[in-house]
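Below is how a single chain appears once it has passed through the pipeline. First comes the sequence as given, then the structure the pipeline wrote out for it. We keep one example in the README because the format questions we get most often are answered faster by looking than by reading.
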Amino acid sequence: MDRIQLDELARRLLESLPGGVRTLKRDLETNFRAVLRANLARLDLVTRDEFDAQTRVLERTRAKLETLEAQVAVLEGRVSGGDG
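Resulting structure:
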């Protein structure tokens, strides 16, 4: 999660608080960011770019697998056709 998204999430949390609590805005904002960063750091997250790259790799791998499966089916057909 990038800094802008983290700041937006902290801002939303702050806005959800009752008016009287908002007077502690600066402290709460700092604490929200610290807690969010600490908890997000523990998660096994990847960037969107990395996710997209892995998706493309998976798509290519699936296409290759389908090609190989078709080739195996043809070869198996030849073998079983030759046995009969």
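The chain has a mean pLDDT of 85.

See the next section for the split statistics.
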